[in-house]
Model the fold of this input.
Amino acid sequence: MNSLCVFCGSRPGDDPGYAEAARHLGRTLAERHTTLVYGGGHVGLMGVVADAALEAGGAVVGVMPRALVEREIAHTGLTQLHVVGSMHERKALMANLSEGFVALPGGTGTLEELFEVFTWAQLGEHRKPCGLLNVARYYDPLLNVLDQMVARGFLSEKHRGMIVVEQGPERLLESFSRYEPPLVPKWISETET
Done:
């Protein structure tokens, strides 16, 4: 994998393990010569993962709307920073620059970014892996919601399986290297195929 998009919090969270996982992921990407693509900030877990990748000699590409750059939260030491006009442009460019997507712990923005690319994958808009780095079981409640969606008939088992879940970056990247998306049409139920 040449590039990986990381979605994560603009805050550090309440557990020092989140920042350590972000550092570990950043270093691992640099060691594997995988470019980190992310939101371009120097704050929270975003800053931690970027700094770790840069310190380990990796390439880091940020994408940030001009309004956020003007608030002085852009990381100034990146390999490349793309300044775009809107959040929509940001997400589209991050997706185009990346061969896969992973979410570290984060808030609503992190979930919104992840669910957009996950939905695109279900619709066949891309065949890139989407995953969760489930640090300290942070995403367990979300995984329960996905399982509820399956149980209640709103999400197929095959589409639920498209979210790769691991607790460490090495295992996540190994799972990504073996990832094969299901060939299941989104709008046709399994009983109709």
In short: The first helix runs from residue 16 to 31. The mean pLDDT is 94. The chain is about 45% helix and 15% strand.
